[in-house]
Structure formats: C-alpha cells, structure tokens
Design brief:
Helix content of chain A: 40-55%
Order of helices and strands of chain A: EHEEHHEHEEHEHEEHHEEHH
Largest sheet of chain A: 11 strands, mixed
Strand order of the largest sheet of chain A: 3-2-1-4-11-10-5-6-9-7-8
CATH topology of the largest domain in chain A: Isopropylmalate Dehydrogenase
Number of domains of chain A: 2
Mean pLDDT of chain A: 92
Radius of gyration of chain A: 20 Å
Number of strands of chain A: 11
Distance between the termini of chain A: 34 Å
Number of helices of chain A: 10
Largest interface: A-B, 61 and 61 residues
Structural class of chain A: alpha/beta
Oligomer: homodimer
CATH superfamily of the largest domain in chain A: Isopropylmalate Dehydrogenase
CATH class of the largest domain in chain A: Alpha Beta
Low-confidence stretches of chain A: 325-333
C-alpha cells in the first residue's frame, strides 16, 4: 500500500521552494507526496493538484477558508475529504488549517473539539502535549477528550504501551490549579486512563509523563516558552563564549554537542503537529519550516496513516467518551 | 533611616541555617534584618521576634494561617502590620504568605486581588511578570490592575521610565487569545498605560517589554517552563559533553561562561518575588533558597521600602483604577 500525502505547496514562509524540496525528499517506497499548488509549479516529477490561490498567515481563518475554496491549503484538506489523498500537510496558517478541517473533514462522532498534538522531544523520550493551540478556551470535558486522543497518539505514533497521562497545572497536589484544571482533574481520575495527576511545566522538557493534557492557550504558552528559552539560552551562551579566547576555543569544541542537544530538544525540529479528532489526518508544520522539517512532517503524516490513527481514535472515543455520563457529546455537533 | 525587614527563620527547605546566614549577610548600613523564630535560635546578634510554630509547605494555606497565628510566617507578616518591621520575607509556603497577608495586611483601597510580581532577568534587561501565581482564576479587570502594579514596580524597582506593558497571549494580533486575554486587551488599550499589545512567551527570556501581564495560572506555567527548560537544557549539554574527550575539554573551557549565563538568566537566582497590592511590603523567596538567595530577597524587600512601592502603588491605583468605569473595586472588598 502506498500512502498519499497532500502537501500545500504555497503554505509557510519558505514556500514553494522548500516545500517542494521537502516533499521530494520524503518521497519513497510506500510514500507518495502529492503537491497542491499552481499549474506552473515545478513539482519535480511529483503529482500536482492544481490550486492557484494562497491563504496568507494573517488572514482571518474562517473567512479566508470560506472565500478561497480553491486555495492550496483548502484544496489539500479537500483532497483528504474526497479520497485523493490519505493525509494533508501544510506549513500555512494554523487557524486556517483548523477551519478548513472542521469544514471539509468534520469531527469524528462524539468529538467536541479537535486538539493539536505536538511531540515534545523530552530528555527521557518523546511525549505528547495536547492541546497546543486549537482551543484558546476549553471546558473540562474537552480536556478529558484530549487525554484520550493523546493516549491513542502516544500508543500509535510514539509506541508507548499504556501511556501515562498528566494534567498540566501549577502544583502537583490535586487541589492546585484553576477551575478548568480542577474540573478536568476530577474527570481524568474517573476516566480509566493511566492518570498520574498534575504535572508542572518545569518537567515538560524532562518528560515525566507520556501525555500532557491542557487547554490550547496554556499549551501554546508553555510550548513557546520552551522554544524561546532554548533559543535565548543558546544564543546567550554563544555571545558569552565569543567574549574571551578561552570561550571561543571552548565554543569551537562543544559546537557539535550543542547542535545535537538543540536538535534533539527543540520541538521546532520535530516537523509538525497533528490535528486530532477529525475524520481524516492533518499535520500542521511550523511556518518557518525548511525542507528537512517538511520532509519530517510528511513522514509523520504517513506514519499516522499506516497506524490508522483516525480509526483508532474513533474506536477509543466511541468506547470511553461516548460512554461517559460526564460529557454531552451532542451538545456542540 | 534604617529599613527593618522581618525574616521568617522557619520557612523554606533549608531553614533555619541558610535563612539566618542570609539575613546576617544582608545586614548592613541602613538595613536591619529581624529574625522571626524560636527563642533558642542563634540569631547571630540580630534582633529576634519569638515565634515557636512553623507552617509546613503542604498545609492548606488559609486553615494553617488561622490555626497558627503565632507561627513564624504569620508573625513576620504581623510584624509589618503592627509597625515592628517595614517589610517581611519568607521562603515558606506561597499560599500561606498570601493568606497571611490578606488577613493581617489587607489590600490597598480599590485592589481586587494582590498579584505576584517576579523579575525575569531577560537578555535585554530585567522585566517583570505579574501575576506569577497568586490568582489561578482571574478576570480582565484583575489583569488591568496587575498591569498598573507591574508598571509601578518597573518604575521603582527596575528604574524604567514609562515602562512598556505587554499582555501574554498566543499571537501578537489583538484578536488572538482566550476570552480573558481578549477582555484584558480591551481594558489595557484604554488604560493610558504604554501598552504594546500582545506578546508571546517565546520572547519572555528575550525581554520584549518591561511588564508582562497575565493571570496567575498562565504566569506560573510560563515561569516554570522557563526555569525547567534552562535546567534541562544545561543538564543535557553537560551529559552530551561528558560523552567524548573533545566534549570534556570543551566543557571545561566553557564552564565559567555557562555558569554566568545560567546565573544571569534563571529567574530562580533572583531571590524573591513581590506580593503587590497590599498595605505592606511582602517578598516571597523560593522554597529552596540558599543564604545568597535569602540575602538577595531581603535586599529586594528593603529596596521596595526605600522606593516607597506601597505608597506609589496606592497613589497610582487611586488615580487610574478607581477612576476607571470598567472596574467595580468595591465588589470584592
């Protein structure tokens, strides 16, 4: 079986050159990237789905998606909805990808809100943070669903049996947190998941649990704090080393090690984030993605197809969430 | 004038030895630390206010403060309320300090909620994050008040004229954020403060603005993400360097520079956080504070007294917040 991944050739700061190069790099046995872009695009031999318009990063997402059904971003998502591709990847606007996915792929039965799942390449091994930004405002029952989605992701994509789930909060004791976290904690303790309780952002990069559950606002703040701190700390170290001969010599010697640490720990280098809870597979890549990041995002999408993440999610949510008396899954459909 | 700072000798993981040593180190011209602890404590020549009981880190704050009015933590706060000291410092439970302060010092007129102000030793110079954890749930008008408090703090303690204020959110555009951030943004744009708009946690350690405003849940998550990332990144770098001869040599050469960067950027090394919005000055030190951290916290408290932070806050809040039609300052008094 060959997995076909639709790649938005016009999304991201470095489109189309780096996107096309990344898609080409990912192409291989069992994986066929399909580019979505203008007819004149040099697709390097890959199949091309024609789409002329682009959606800019700063366009209001819902309006842009409705106004530009023929844009490369929307067309890539529609390719999944219409069976032309098995998954879609874009480095374009996250909001537009979310809007296009809700409109054209729709939610899985019982799913209240899709969530963005990001892999944190933590020191003790990869873990997943969900929601990393799809829902700025959330309710406890959304976090419960994110926990189930994150657990399926950890099992299928990270290969963890019986993943441990933690709730991001501001203290490890059950009674620490805001109203949202307290409510989610109550649901999670009764969920049947392997719930470890509250975890603090202090341990995010260390990797105390396999799945870290939070709302999209907090998750986005935590993730960007992590990315920014890595960048600022390494930049500061570099500047400090340049100020002395001893430092310059030391800097030269540690360069490969520092590079390895940065590449291993920075979530940005992971390529992309899954949008979970939909009737199709969507991966959102960083806006600044290079060809390497795009190739990784395409492979990440293909892995999700091979592991049937969507089907597994549907089964899991039907079993555990629809059965739960604490949620009212029909309320927002 | 001599500033008297009451220091809780029984608060923190390393009490009383490191606390007493820190207080002694801070003592000097114009600064008199006053220890609060058991009668048998060797105060090294400092004045001692007797207090036998201690409040443990994991005791429920409000209950502990009510049940132990004679504890060292409560007694230190009461020393300020009763005029025996000009400020109080404790490395004990943050929640208990907050509860004791609300009970014995009370809020400044018009203040809805006190906020914790932490100095972020950012690369472009120090900035202040408020609220770093006093209020897990907050409303837009609380964030407006935190912005005013943070501005006074930046002026008086950081020495910034007309500080720039940013609202922590998940995108720089005004329409990005959760309901709380959107509401706070509206109030801040009309506040008369030098409001820069939304800022992302990515730039927190870089230092894009002088005052970063947020609720206590988000602020605490961001701050701990920053602290944890610094620790994990440097630990990982150290482990990576140890694995080769080249790395070990490089590691030896960069050690002083790495140490300087860590000390400069890690918020933990700053000594303490202010609890603002009260009729007295309170500084909360890290639970793990060493003598150096305690000495810094005592000096930080003295600086607040010298700069009349409480009076300046009262004037500012009376002028700008009580006058604002968007808040109802009497509602929670």
């Amino acid at each position: 079986m060959t997995v076909r991944v639709a790649v938005d050739a016009l999304g991201g700061d470095r489109a189309p050159a780096e996107i096309v190069a990344g898609a080409l790099a990912a192409a291989g046995e069992g994986l066929e990237p399909v580019l979505v872009g203008p007819p004149e695009l040099d697709a390097g031999g890959l199949r091309l789905i024609e789409a002329d318009q682009a959606i800019a990063m700063d366009e209001p997402p819902v309006e842009a998606v409705r106004a530009k059904p023929g844009s490369s971003l929307v067309r890539a998502v529609r390719a999944v909805a219409e069976g032309e591709a098995d998954a879609a990847v874009s480095a374009g606007s996250t909001g537009a990808m979310l809007a296009a996915s809700l409109l054209h792929l729709r939610r899985l039965p019982g799913v209240l809100r899709p969530g963005i799942a990001v892999v944190i390449p933590a020191r003790r091994g990869p873990s997943v943070l969900i929601d990393a930004g799809a829902n700025a405002d959330a309710r406890p029952e959304h976090l419960l669903q994110f926990a189930h989605m994150g657990a399926v992701f950890a099992e299928e994509i990270l290969g963890v049996a019986e993943p441990e789930v933690g709730l991001l909060s501001i203290g490890e004791e059950d009674e620490k947190g805001n109203q949202l976290a307290l409510g989610a904690g109550t649901l999670l303790r009764a969920s049947g998941l392997r719930f470890r309780g509250n975890v603090e952002s202090r341990g995010l990069l260390e990797g105390e649990v396999d799945v870290v559950v939070t709302d999209g606002f907090t998750g986005n703040v935590a993730l960007k704090a992590l990315e920014g701190t890595i960048r600022t700390l390494l930049d500061s170290l570099r500047a400090e080393l340049r100020s002395s001969l001893r430092g310059r010599l030391g800097g030269l010697l540690i360069r490969p090690a520092a590079q390895r640490v940065r590449e291993r720990l920075d979530p940005e280098t992971y390529g992309g984030a899954y949008l979970l809870g939909l009737r199709g597979l969507v991966v959102i890549a960083h806006g600044s993605s290079s060809r390497v990041a795009i190739a990784n995002a395409v492979r990440l999408a293909a892995r999700g197809v091979e592991h049937q993440v969507v089907t597994r999610l549907e089964e899991r949510l039907a079993r555990s969430v629809l059965a739960s008396p604490t949620t009212s899954p029909t309320a927002e459909r």
